[in-house]
Amino acid sequence: MTETVVSTRKPQPGVAVLVEPPGATTVPRRRSDSAGRLRALDGLRLVAALMVALYHYGGRGGEVAQAWGTSPQDQFPTLHALFAYGCLGVQVFFVISGFVICMSGWGRPLQSFFASRVSRLMPAYWVAVLLVTAVFALPVVAYQAVSPSDALVNLTMLQMPLGVDRVLGVCWTLWAEVRFYALFALCVVLPGANRRRVVMFCAGWLLAAVIAENANMPLLDIALMPEYAPFFIGGVGLYLVHRDRRDVYGWGITAAGWLIGQHYAVQSLWHAPDPEAFSYRSSFGIVAVVTFGFVAVAAIALGLLGRVNWRWLTVAGALTYPFYLVHEHLGWVVIQALHRGLGLASGVTFVLTVASMLLLAWLLHKYVEKPLTPRLRAALTKTR
Q1: How far apart are CA 222 and CA 240, in angstroms?
Q2: Residues 341-367, mean pLDDT to the nearest whole number
Q3: SS3 for 6?
Q4: Which helix (H) or strand (E) holds 115?
Q5: Which residue has the higher pLDDT, 370 or 143?
Q6: pLDDT value at 336 more than 80
Q7: Which of 55, 301, 316, 383 has the smallest number of Cβ neighbours within 10 A?
Q8: Rounded to an integer, what distance in angstroms lies between the CA atom of residue 107 and that of residue 379?
Q9: In 3-state terms, what secondary structure has residue 184?
Q10: What is the arithmetic mean of pLDDT over 338-346?
Q11: DSSP 140
Protein backbone atom coordinates (compact mmCIF):
# COMPACT_ATOMS: atom_id res chain seq x y z
CA MET A 1 0.00 0.00 0.00
CA THR A 2 3.08 2.18 0.12
CA GLU A 3 5.13 2.00 -3.04
CA THR A 4 5.61 4.08 -6.14
CA VAL A 5 8.55 3.22 -8.37
CA VAL A 6 9.95 3.46 -11.87
CA SER A 7 8.99 0.67 -14.22
CA THR A 8 11.78 -1.44 -15.67
CA ARG A 9 9.66 -3.03 -18.37
CA LYS A 10 11.68 -3.45 -21.53
CA PRO A 11 10.87 -0.76 -24.12
CA GLN A 12 9.36 -1.79 -27.43
CA PRO A 13 10.38 -0.33 -30.79
CA GLY A 14 9.29 3.29 -31.02
CA VAL A 15 8.91 3.62 -27.27
CA ALA A 16 11.10 5.86 -25.12
CA VAL A 17 11.71 5.26 -21.42
CA LEU A 18 11.73 8.58 -19.58
CA VAL A 19 13.35 8.83 -16.18
CA GLU A 20 11.12 10.45 -13.56
CA PRO A 21 11.99 11.84 -10.13
CA PRO A 22 12.28 9.39 -7.22
CA GLY A 23 8.90 8.14 -6.09
CA ALA A 24 7.31 8.31 -9.53
CA THR A 25 5.43 5.32 -10.91
CA THR A 26 6.37 5.20 -14.56
CA VAL A 27 6.12 2.89 -17.51
CA PRO A 28 7.54 3.18 -21.02
CA ARG A 29 5.63 5.69 -23.07
CA ARG A 30 5.60 6.95 -26.59
CA ARG A 31 7.21 10.30 -27.16
CA SER A 32 3.88 11.84 -28.01
CA ASP A 33 2.23 10.72 -24.76
CA SER A 34 1.71 13.40 -22.12
CA ALA A 35 2.12 11.09 -19.14
CA GLY A 36 3.77 7.80 -18.37
CA ARG A 37 3.00 7.00 -14.76
CA LEU A 38 1.23 3.84 -13.73
CA ARG A 39 -1.63 6.07 -12.71
CA ALA A 40 -4.16 3.25 -12.83
CA LEU A 41 -2.11 1.50 -10.13
CA ASP A 42 -2.14 4.70 -8.06
CA GLY A 43 -5.91 4.81 -8.42
CA LEU A 44 -6.27 1.15 -7.43
CA ARG A 45 -4.24 1.78 -4.29
CA LEU A 46 -6.62 4.54 -3.25
CA VAL A 47 -9.61 2.30 -4.01
CA ALA A 48 -8.14 -0.37 -1.71
CA ALA A 49 -7.55 2.21 1.04
CA LEU A 50 -11.13 3.48 0.75
CA MET A 51 -12.39 -0.11 0.94
CA VAL A 52 -10.60 -0.49 4.26
CA ALA A 53 -12.03 2.83 5.45
CA LEU A 54 -15.56 1.66 4.58
CA TYR A 55 -14.94 -1.40 6.71
CA HIS A 56 -13.50 0.52 9.66
CA TYR A 57 -16.28 3.13 9.69
CA GLY A 58 -19.34 1.05 8.86
CA GLY A 59 -18.52 -2.61 8.29
CA ARG A 60 -17.53 -3.81 11.74
CA GLY A 61 -18.38 -3.43 15.41
CA GLY A 62 -16.02 -2.65 18.25
CA GLU A 63 -14.60 0.78 19.07
CA VAL A 64 -16.25 2.53 16.13
CA ALA A 65 -19.64 1.79 17.70
CA GLN A 66 -18.59 4.03 20.57
CA ALA A 67 -17.96 6.84 18.10
CA TRP A 68 -21.36 6.42 16.43
CA GLY A 69 -23.17 5.90 19.71
CA THR A 70 -24.70 2.67 18.37
CA SER A 71 -23.56 -0.16 16.15
CA PRO A 72 -22.81 0.78 12.54
CA GLN A 73 -25.35 -1.91 11.73
CA ASP A 74 -27.97 0.53 13.04
CA GLN A 75 -26.42 3.51 11.31
CA PHE A 76 -26.25 1.77 7.91
CA PRO A 77 -28.93 -0.97 7.92
CA THR A 78 -28.30 -1.97 4.30
CA LEU A 79 -24.81 -0.78 3.45
CA HIS A 80 -23.08 -2.28 6.49
CA ALA A 81 -23.26 -5.72 4.85
CA LEU A 82 -21.36 -4.38 1.81
CA PHE A 83 -18.94 -2.37 3.93
CA ALA A 84 -18.00 -5.61 5.69
CA TYR A 85 -16.20 -6.75 2.52
CA GLY A 86 -13.94 -3.69 2.70
CA CYS A 87 -11.46 -5.53 4.91
CA LEU A 88 -10.38 -7.37 1.75
CA GLY A 89 -8.81 -4.14 0.58
CA VAL A 90 -5.78 -5.37 2.54
CA GLN A 91 -5.46 -8.41 0.26
CA VAL A 92 -5.68 -6.10 -2.76
CA PHE A 93 -2.87 -4.03 -1.22
CA PHE A 94 -0.71 -7.13 -0.87
CA VAL A 95 -1.14 -8.03 -4.55
CA ILE A 96 -0.17 -4.48 -5.53
CA SER A 97 2.80 -4.63 -3.15
CA GLY A 98 4.08 -7.87 -4.72
CA PHE A 99 3.95 -6.26 -8.15
CA VAL A 100 5.65 -3.02 -7.13
CA ILE A 101 8.31 -4.43 -4.83
CA CYS A 102 9.47 -6.78 -7.58
CA MET A 103 9.55 -3.80 -9.94
CA SER A 104 11.42 -1.71 -7.37
CA GLY A 105 14.00 -4.37 -6.52
CA TRP A 106 14.81 -5.39 -10.09
CA GLY A 107 18.35 -4.27 -10.93
CA ARG A 108 18.78 -2.39 -7.64
CA PRO A 109 21.56 -3.06 -5.08
CA LEU A 110 20.53 -4.05 -1.57
CA GLN A 111 21.53 -0.76 0.05
CA SER A 112 19.47 1.24 -2.42
CA PHE A 113 16.48 -1.09 -1.96
CA PHE A 114 16.73 -0.80 1.82
CA ALA A 115 17.01 3.00 1.67
CA SER A 116 14.02 3.19 -0.66
CA ARG A 117 11.78 1.13 1.61
CA VAL A 118 12.77 2.79 4.88
CA SER A 119 12.51 6.33 3.51
CA ARG A 120 9.14 5.54 1.97
CA LEU A 121 7.61 3.95 5.05
CA MET A 122 8.98 5.69 8.10
CA PRO A 123 8.52 9.52 7.97
CA ALA A 124 4.72 9.46 7.67
CA TYR A 125 4.55 6.48 10.03
CA TRP A 126 6.52 8.24 12.77
CA VAL A 127 4.33 11.34 12.57
CA ALA A 128 1.13 9.26 12.48
CA VAL A 129 2.16 7.37 15.65
CA LEU A 130 2.94 10.61 17.49
CA LEU A 131 -0.21 12.33 16.23
CA VAL A 132 -2.59 9.53 17.22
CA THR A 133 -0.89 9.17 20.60
CA ALA A 134 -1.23 12.90 21.26
CA VAL A 135 -4.88 13.06 20.16
CA PHE A 136 -5.88 10.04 22.24
CA ALA A 137 -4.18 11.62 25.28
CA LEU A 138 -6.51 14.64 25.13
CA PRO A 139 -9.07 14.70 27.99
CA VAL A 140 -11.96 15.31 25.57
CA VAL A 141 -11.21 12.14 23.59
CA ALA A 142 -12.98 9.03 24.82
CA TYR A 143 -10.31 6.60 23.64
CA GLN A 144 -7.36 5.63 25.82
CA ALA A 145 -3.82 6.25 24.64
CA VAL A 146 -1.17 3.56 24.96
CA SER A 147 1.51 3.98 27.62
CA PRO A 148 4.48 6.26 26.80
CA SER A 149 6.78 3.23 26.73
CA ASP A 150 4.56 1.37 24.27
CA ALA A 151 4.25 4.47 22.10
CA LEU A 152 8.04 4.67 21.87
CA VAL A 153 8.27 1.00 20.88
CA ASN A 154 5.68 1.64 18.17
CA LEU A 155 8.12 4.03 16.50
CA THR A 156 10.27 1.00 15.58
CA MET A 157 7.40 -0.73 13.73
CA LEU A 158 8.28 -3.88 15.71
CA GLN A 159 5.43 -3.69 18.23
CA MET A 160 3.69 -6.74 16.76
CA PRO A 161 6.46 -9.32 17.39
CA LEU A 162 7.16 -7.70 20.77
CA GLY A 163 3.53 -8.03 21.85
CA VAL A 164 3.24 -4.30 22.60
CA ASP A 165 -0.06 -2.40 22.38
CA ARG A 166 -0.49 -0.84 18.95
CA VAL A 167 -0.97 2.89 18.41
CA LEU A 168 -2.25 2.34 14.87
CA GLY A 169 -4.72 -0.46 14.34
CA VAL A 170 -3.57 -0.96 10.74
CA CYS A 171 0.07 -1.51 11.63
CA TRP A 172 -0.36 -5.30 11.56
CA THR A 173 -0.42 -5.04 7.76
CA LEU A 174 2.85 -3.09 7.82
CA TRP A 175 4.42 -5.91 9.81
CA ALA A 176 3.36 -8.29 7.02
CA GLU A 177 4.83 -5.90 4.43
CA VAL A 178 8.15 -5.66 6.31
CA ARG A 179 8.49 -9.45 6.42
CA PHE A 180 7.81 -9.62 2.68
CA TYR A 181 10.46 -6.95 2.04
CA ALA A 182 12.97 -8.90 4.13
CA LEU A 183 12.30 -12.18 2.29
CA PHE A 184 12.49 -10.52 -1.11
CA ALA A 185 15.65 -8.61 -0.20
CA LEU A 186 17.49 -11.70 1.07
CA CYS A 187 16.37 -14.09 -1.67
CA VAL A 188 16.21 -11.84 -4.73
CA VAL A 189 17.75 -8.38 -4.29
CA LEU A 190 20.91 -9.44 -2.43
CA PRO A 191 22.04 -12.05 -4.99
CA GLY A 192 20.73 -9.90 -7.88
CA ALA A 193 17.25 -9.98 -9.34
CA ASN A 194 16.64 -11.90 -12.54
CA ARG A 195 13.69 -13.81 -13.91
CA ARG A 196 14.90 -17.26 -12.91
CA ARG A 197 15.67 -16.16 -9.35
CA VAL A 198 12.25 -14.50 -9.01
CA VAL A 199 10.48 -17.61 -10.28
CA MET A 200 12.38 -19.84 -7.85
CA PHE A 201 11.67 -17.43 -5.00
CA CYS A 202 7.93 -17.49 -5.68
CA ALA A 203 7.79 -21.27 -6.08
CA GLY A 204 9.91 -21.92 -3.01
CA TRP A 205 8.05 -19.44 -0.78
CA LEU A 206 4.62 -20.70 -1.83
CA LEU A 207 5.55 -24.34 -1.22
CA ALA A 208 7.22 -23.54 2.10
CA ALA A 209 4.23 -21.47 3.22
CA VAL A 210 1.82 -24.30 2.46
CA ILE A 211 4.00 -26.77 4.36
CA ALA A 212 4.28 -24.33 7.28
CA GLU A 213 0.50 -24.29 7.56
CA ASN A 214 0.53 -27.80 9.01
CA ALA A 215 3.97 -27.84 10.61
CA ASN A 216 2.70 -26.42 13.91
CA MET A 217 5.81 -24.28 14.25
CA PRO A 218 5.04 -20.65 15.17
CA LEU A 219 8.40 -19.42 13.91
CA LEU A 220 7.63 -20.69 10.41
CA ASP A 221 4.22 -19.04 10.50
CA ILE A 222 5.81 -15.72 11.43
CA ALA A 223 8.51 -15.91 8.79
CA LEU A 224 6.53 -17.40 5.90
CA MET A 225 3.06 -15.84 6.50
CA PRO A 226 0.99 -18.66 4.91
CA GLU A 227 -2.22 -16.59 5.03
CA TYR A 228 -0.78 -13.61 3.13
CA ALA A 229 2.08 -15.09 1.07
CA PRO A 230 -0.16 -16.04 -1.91
CA PHE A 231 -1.17 -12.41 -2.46
CA PHE A 232 2.38 -11.07 -2.45
CA ILE A 233 3.47 -13.96 -4.67
CA GLY A 234 0.59 -13.39 -7.07
CA GLY A 235 1.61 -9.74 -7.40
CA VAL A 236 5.20 -10.76 -8.16
CA GLY A 237 3.91 -13.14 -10.83
CA LEU A 238 1.95 -10.28 -12.38
CA TYR A 239 5.12 -8.22 -12.59
CA LEU A 240 6.70 -11.03 -14.60
CA VAL A 241 3.65 -10.86 -16.86
CA HIS A 242 4.15 -7.08 -17.07
CA ARG A 243 7.65 -7.68 -18.38
CA ASP A 244 6.51 -10.37 -20.81
CA ARG A 245 2.83 -11.17 -21.22
CA ARG A 246 3.75 -14.56 -22.76
CA ASP A 247 5.64 -15.65 -19.63
CA VAL A 248 3.95 -18.96 -18.77
CA TYR A 249 5.71 -19.14 -15.41
CA GLY A 250 4.48 -15.65 -14.54
CA TRP A 251 0.90 -16.64 -15.34
CA GLY A 252 1.32 -19.89 -13.40
CA ILE A 253 2.61 -18.06 -10.32
CA THR A 254 -0.28 -15.60 -10.56
CA ALA A 255 -2.85 -18.39 -10.86
CA ALA A 256 -1.38 -20.29 -7.90
CA GLY A 257 -1.43 -17.11 -5.82
CA TRP A 258 -5.08 -16.49 -6.65
CA LEU A 259 -6.19 -20.09 -6.08
CA ILE A 260 -4.50 -20.41 -2.69
CA GLY A 261 -5.13 -16.79 -1.68
CA GLN A 262 -8.89 -17.04 -2.10
CA HIS A 263 -8.81 -20.18 0.04
CA TYR A 264 -7.14 -18.36 2.92
CA ALA A 265 -9.44 -15.35 2.54
CA VAL A 266 -12.57 -17.51 2.70
CA GLN A 267 -11.14 -19.55 5.56
CA SER A 268 -10.44 -16.48 7.72
CA LEU A 269 -13.40 -14.23 6.81
CA TRP A 270 -16.35 -16.53 6.14
CA HIS A 271 -18.67 -17.74 8.84
CA ALA A 272 -22.05 -19.41 8.81
CA PRO A 273 -25.05 -17.03 8.83
CA ASP A 274 -25.64 -15.97 12.41
CA PRO A 275 -28.20 -13.38 13.54
CA GLU A 276 -25.93 -12.49 16.46
CA ALA A 277 -22.97 -11.71 14.20
CA PHE A 278 -22.37 -8.17 13.01
CA SER A 279 -22.31 -9.10 9.34
CA TYR A 280 -22.25 -12.06 7.00
CA ARG A 281 -19.75 -12.41 4.18
CA SER A 282 -20.61 -15.09 1.66
CA SER A 283 -17.81 -17.23 0.26
CA PHE A 284 -18.82 -16.08 -3.24
CA GLY A 285 -18.51 -12.43 -2.21
CA ILE A 286 -15.08 -12.99 -0.68
CA VAL A 287 -13.81 -14.82 -3.77
CA ALA A 288 -15.26 -12.08 -5.99
CA VAL A 289 -13.39 -9.31 -4.16
CA VAL A 290 -10.11 -11.26 -4.16
CA THR A 291 -10.57 -11.92 -7.87
CA PHE A 292 -11.20 -8.22 -8.46
CA GLY A 293 -7.81 -7.41 -6.92
CA PHE A 294 -5.94 -9.90 -9.10
CA VAL A 295 -7.83 -8.97 -12.27
CA ALA A 296 -7.35 -5.23 -11.71
CA VAL A 297 -3.58 -5.57 -11.24
CA ALA A 298 -3.43 -7.95 -14.22
CA ALA A 299 -5.21 -5.39 -16.39
CA ILE A 300 -2.65 -2.77 -15.37
CA ALA A 301 0.24 -5.20 -15.93
CA LEU A 302 -0.99 -5.93 -19.45
CA GLY A 303 -1.46 -2.25 -20.27
CA LEU A 304 -5.22 -2.62 -20.70
CA LEU A 305 -5.89 0.43 -18.51
CA GLY A 306 -3.49 2.73 -20.29
CA ARG A 307 -6.31 5.18 -20.96
CA VAL A 308 -6.84 5.56 -17.21
CA ASN A 309 -4.08 8.13 -17.10
CA TRP A 310 -5.55 11.16 -15.39
CA ARG A 311 -3.00 13.31 -13.55
CA TRP A 312 -5.05 13.50 -10.37
CA LEU A 313 -4.54 9.77 -9.87
CA THR A 314 -0.88 10.48 -9.09
CA VAL A 315 -2.02 12.65 -6.19
CA ALA A 316 -4.45 9.92 -5.16
CA GLY A 317 -1.62 7.40 -5.04
CA ALA A 318 0.53 9.75 -2.97
CA LEU A 319 -2.25 10.21 -0.40
CA THR A 320 -2.95 6.50 0.00
CA TYR A 321 -0.27 5.61 2.55
CA PRO A 322 -0.75 8.55 4.96
CA PHE A 323 -4.53 8.16 4.64
CA TYR A 324 -4.24 4.47 5.46
CA LEU A 325 -2.15 5.23 8.55
CA VAL A 326 -4.41 7.84 10.16
CA HIS A 327 -7.93 7.09 8.93
CA GLU A 328 -9.00 4.47 11.49
CA HIS A 329 -8.28 5.87 14.94
CA LEU A 330 -8.50 9.56 14.09
CA GLY A 331 -11.60 8.78 12.05
CA TRP A 332 -13.31 7.57 15.23
CA VAL A 333 -12.61 10.93 16.86
CA VAL A 334 -14.03 12.84 13.88
CA ILE A 335 -17.13 10.60 13.70
CA GLN A 336 -17.87 11.18 17.36
CA ALA A 337 -17.40 14.95 17.04
CA LEU A 338 -19.59 15.27 13.94
CA HIS A 339 -22.31 12.71 14.67
CA ARG A 340 -22.70 12.82 18.42
CA GLY A 341 -21.28 16.28 19.02
CA LEU A 342 -22.84 18.26 16.16
CA GLY A 343 -25.73 15.91 15.43
CA LEU A 344 -24.95 15.44 11.74
CA ALA A 345 -26.63 12.60 9.87
CA SER A 346 -24.76 9.31 9.50
CA GLY A 347 -24.23 9.64 5.76
CA VAL A 348 -22.99 13.23 6.02
CA THR A 349 -20.69 12.27 8.89
CA PHE A 350 -19.29 9.37 6.89
CA VAL A 351 -18.47 11.53 3.86
CA LEU A 352 -17.00 14.38 5.93
CA THR A 353 -14.87 11.95 7.93
CA VAL A 354 -13.36 10.44 4.79
CA ALA A 355 -12.81 13.93 3.36
CA SER A 356 -11.11 15.15 6.54
CA MET A 357 -8.79 12.13 6.60
CA LEU A 358 -7.87 12.73 2.96
CA LEU A 359 -7.08 16.35 3.82
CA LEU A 360 -4.90 15.24 6.72
CA ALA A 361 -3.20 12.74 4.40
CA TRP A 362 -2.46 15.57 1.95
CA LEU A 363 -0.91 17.64 4.75
CA LEU A 364 1.24 14.70 5.84
CA HIS A 365 2.36 14.11 2.27
CA LYS A 366 3.17 17.76 1.62
CA TYR A 367 4.82 18.68 4.90
CA VAL A 368 6.28 15.36 6.05
CA GLU A 369 6.84 12.94 3.18
CA LYS A 370 7.96 15.35 0.47
CA PRO A 371 10.68 17.05 2.53
CA LEU A 372 11.83 14.09 4.65
CA THR A 373 11.67 11.10 2.30
CA PRO A 374 14.41 12.23 -0.13
CA ARG A 375 16.63 13.39 2.73
CA LEU A 376 16.32 10.10 4.58
CA ARG A 377 16.89 8.14 1.36
CA ALA A 378 20.01 10.14 0.58
CA ALA A 379 21.38 9.66 4.11
CA LEU A 380 20.82 5.89 3.97
CA THR A 381 22.30 5.56 0.49
CA LYS A 382 25.60 7.27 1.28
CA THR A 383 28.51 4.85 1.04
CA ARG A 384 30.98 4.88 3.91
Answers
A1: 26
A2: 97
A3: strand
A4: helix 110-136
A5: 370
A6: yes
A7: 383
A8: 21
A9: helix
A10: 96
A11: T
